[in-house]
Amino acid sequence: MQALPGFRDFLPQQCAERNYVFQVWREVARRYGFVEWDGPVLESTDLYRKKSGAEIVDQLFHFVDKGEREVALRPELTPTLARVVAAHERGFKKPLKWFSIGQFFRYEKQQRGRLREHYQLNCDIIGEPSLASDVELVALAIDLLRGFGLTKDDFVVRISDRQFWTEFLQANGTADERRQEILEIIDKSEREPREKTKEKLAELAGPVLKILEQGATSDRLNQIQAGLQTRGLADFVQIDVRIVRGLAYYTGIVFEIFDRAGKLRAIAGGGRYDNLVAQLSDSSANLPALGFAMGDVVLGELIRETAHARDQMAKAIQVEHQIQVYAVIAKEERREVALKQIQAMRDSGYRVDYPLTAAKVPKQFQTAEQLGARFAVVFGDEWPNVAVKDLGTGKQETVKSDDLLAHLGVGR
Amino acid sequence: MQALPGFRDFLPQQCAERNYVFQVWREVARRYGFVEWDGPVLESTDLYRKKSGAEIVDQLFHFVDKGEREVALRPELTPTLARVVAAHERGFKKPLKWFSIGQFFRYEKQQRGRLREHYQLNCDIIGEPSLASDVELVALAIDLLRGFGLTKDDFVVRISDRQFWTEFLQANGTADERRQEILEIIDKSEREPREKTKEKLAELAGPVLKILEQGATSDRLNQIQAGLQTRGLADFVQIDVRIVRGLAYYTGIVFEIFDRAGKLRAIAGGGRYDNLVAQLSDSSANLPALGFAMGDVVLGELIRETAHARDQMAKAIQVEHQIQVYAVIAKEERREVALKQIQAMRDSGYRVDYPLTAAKVPKQFQTAEQLGARFAVVFGDEWPNVAVKDLGTGKQETVKSDDLLAHLGVGR
Question: I want to staple A265 with a disulfide (CB 3.0 to 4.6 A). Which of A69, A113, A393, B77 is the partner?
Fold first, then answer.
């Protein structure tokens, strides 16, 4: 028996890597004053049907429960956010700066960087229309990746402006229903041959291809870049109007983050969606909003492929997970006093392990090494003294058992 | 639109309480040398059918996916553990000491302390038959609750011995098929009238009721208690053979943890299940095992009802979640230098917030107070100096902006 296709078992090493990613996400989001929330992993299927996006409903894990309800495993967080914010926003000071770390599900063909479940960090600012909040959000996205030791040589934020395109299409007299089509063609243009894009763009091929090939900018994009410049983050960003994001609901600044080498799928993506909360929640509250999501799968690939980020992860996991003390029970008649000391060390917060049953001393030291213990504390003939061996340096000292905690505290 | 019945939204306060519970679980489990792992929330329904327990399959959230697979949201972790351990145990040194924190699902009638989803800590020791591991596991369960500030006056571990009953029933010549029935009658006896239990016990009513009413013990139980005595934990435990645990797969020491007042459902429960891994995994590996699960719902109720535990939680959440610095932008022309300093403070790990748009100074101080900021740093006329106000003491100092980080470091 195996896990279902597209689902992961997290053995201790994988689980430690997953938790490391969560920890950095949490730590950096909090530095930005974001507070954590979460919703259920199972929601009414209607919540996802409402949001224009047939593709998402096609890819849902959905079913009818024993109470005849149509339910679905959440494919994304935004509909839940809109539901929760519409119900509770009156109790919170605006803008809300909320983040969430959770698991999401899509039934889709498996490929590199795409499973049927993944974890995602979602960061959203609700109730703030100013461009200052777009800068704050992009800066957070950059600092999240910097938190993993990734640098401007490892990733790039490609930042764009939906409104630039809306205005361009209006100026060209493009009909409303054609506008979303054009945006989808632009969204696909990097993955399709030029000729095909040209054909699909038809009457707009000339001016649109010119913009895509020569680049363009807008006042809003220039302001965002100036804001990031102030924070010393401009080198992480590239204005690139080829980014439009596929989804229909974006209204302003949008961005996607890629590895510099361009080998992987997007690491993160998001933007401003000023009308969505009202739309999804049937609420009268007009809440301008912006946010992004960052998944664990592509990010994990980039970390593992980038030496300095991989080393930082390995070191963090080691510090966080290693046993600090291994109690070597050299004489079985010392087991009882050893257990008293083990309890005292654990009560003081040390991570302590020991042999549950009698074992030869060299084997116990071997186990201590395998567990990566910092110290071995030997309970044997010297009792009421114990030998404390620093397994890093090999240095060994004899310590009164009453002084053991104080001694470890110094070595900590 | 609301969350589905039996499912929770975690607004920031609830999410902080949830994360606090996870953090204490993780911290204490690691002190005991347990390492974290996890499995998928969706598994093949067969994995749960295999394990004798029609009740569990009746309560599954299960469905057929788009690939015609019968799948289910996990109701418990043990079948996944058996699957993963059977596949990977050769790569790990025995005994495995593994823990996991995750969400589980049951479609059942809602009542106090029972939702349709909950989080559970699972702790298991695999590959160790000695009673020393039973003591280690019970000690961990006790210290997990002590980690929340709960004391021997708040909870009790009722510890029992399945083998005591097996031996008793063998000695009385009870047939194999009747044995599990008798255990289930004993399991229910505390919740049923004595007369009903007596009737159901039939030929065994005399001796069994005598044991239930007068108590009993076994060598194994006495050894467990002695082991806990050594660790100073005996006061948390009560030998109580009325506990047998409903599930068929337990083979040895079993226990359940209750609030002392006896008002709530069980906080945790578990025991030894020496045959289950082989049975569930069709593996030849004979892996004695023991473990327990602790849910977040009843534990959360007990914490909130117990003043000292509630206070500890509130304090931990405050320390962990509060903004440390609120940047007051007293003059808009200082916004740019303020943002440079905000970036520097965040880079140094401080949690910093500020007004995204122009706001009156008293309103900014009000926001700083509401966010629970430790310090307000005022960017205004005094630039390149800033005013640093300790919002706890009200004390204000003027600091050179170049010295701001050093100054905060001292106050930290």
Answer: A113
